[in-house]
Prior knowledge:
Largest interface: A-B, 26 and 26 residues
Helix content of chain A: 10-25%
Strand content of chain A: 35-45%
Distance between the termini of chain A: 36 Å
Number of strands of chain A: 6
Largest sheet of chain B: 8 strands, mixed
Mean pLDDT of chain B: 95
Number of helices of chain B: 10
Mean pLDDT of chain A: 95
Order of helices and strands of chain B: HEHEEHHEHEHEEHEEEEHEEEEHEEEH
Shape of chain B: globular
Distance between the termini of chain B: 41 Å
Strand order of the largest sheet of chain A: 3-4-5-6
Low-confidence stretches of chain B: none
Order of helices and strands of chain A: EEEHEEEH
Low-confidence stretches of chain A: none
Oligomer: heterodimer
Amino acid sequence: MIRINCPYCGERDHSEFTYGGDGSIKYPALDASMEDWLQAVFQRENIRGVQTESWHHVNGCRMWLLIERDTMTHEIHSVRVAHPGLQQALEDPS
Amino acid sequence: MTRFSAWNVFRNGLSGQKGWDRQWRDVEPKADYDVVIVGGGIHGLATAYYLAKKHGLKNIAVLEKGWIGGGNAGRNTTIVRSNYFRPGNREFYEHSLKLWENLSHDLNYNVMFSQRGHVSLLHSPGAVDAAARGYNTLRLTGSDAEIWGLEELKQEIPHLNYAANARFPILGAAVQRRAGTARHDAVVWGYARAADLLGVDIIQNCEVLAVKRDQGRITGLDTSRGVIGGSKVGFSVAGNTSRLWDMAGLGTLPIESHKLQAFVTEPLKPLLDHVVVFGVGGTHFYISQSDKGGMVFGGDLDWYKSYAQRGNLPIVQDVSECALSILPCLGRVRLLRHWSGVCDMSMDGSHFICKTPLDNLYLNAGWNYGGFKAGPGAGWFLADLIANDRPHEIVAEHDLKRFERGYNIDERGAGPDPKLHG
């Protein structure tokens, strides 16, 4: 069982979460070229090692998280809230 | 090489089994081959076998980083069927099933192919209608299919959960009689032995560490057993395709690596004569009984991307719940082992047998859950592609550029999310 340290709920079993997918993908502008959209939708780096991925704490606080996880060892290196404004607010509540 | 025959089995029985040779040679790699296949699984060995047998090529090597039978060939649930429906897939899997039907004779090796029938349970009127459509497709394209009502199903498989208050009430089943199971080790060993007999070098413990390129061609493979050159190179390493692709400097692929678990229980007396499958909503389950008596079963992926060949516990629970929902009689049976293999999950759930951006590189990848049953067919079509330098019309759409053309071969209609193509 992978344990994920949710910024809101603390350390929880991964069975509380659902896996979103590759979190490094930046979707292009709506009017971007077909090639850009092809890359974003269909092409993957498929890293063996540390990758950024999205997880949804669906049976917890329901926040989307961005997690750096090793796809070979399953070790988690960092967890942050996907929404940049919320992550900033967590880091600097003032 | 001693040929397997009733006479030789009898003769060796009398002489202490001392008359058998080793099944394939343990060779030192040569510096150059006409064709080098990377990956000594069912697909890679079958490719080498058909290149030698059907296309008459002589100077072929298969490189395997571990040992023959130690990868996904030994990490599956051994189900063979051809009930796929998208154009291309339909013909491909039917071709592969026909190869399976004659494989033991072809290889002179008993692969224990048992056409015990594949029974997909139906749980709703909508599922019955969809099954009727699938039945028509199979019958109209030269395959076999049956729809069983509840009475026939109860006669064939009496101990499914037919209770009125079952979690998944059963209405009937879609059946492919010619489908079944095979012995996973025997398939790789049989292909390895038959390919070796035709002069193919099978090189184990030989991991590709780097791919040497001269612009648009591969000039050699830097391996743990030295540099090996090949006029033509085939990649057949589902699970690790992206890593080799990256070594070849080719960038990204429409593939993610996910792991799929399977399970076997302690041996039981004969209980289940067929392969039984069901999938409703969030559940997905398939089970058969091995010749040794173990119940062999599996379910969904582990849901997150992974290259680790070990499974997680929530899926053990999910799959066990599925097992008990249709076969409550398994409640007190103990699990013996569970294992996990790394699958190439593609963006539309279908495979790639195609040419690549490099002139002398050919790709066989993206097998999702279906690699075992596809093995003979994939070898046949990859050999055809390598020998003739053009894809056969049956796999012509199974290339890497199909997404550019807006052409998804998506059996489930699940969309471009690899983990959903179970």
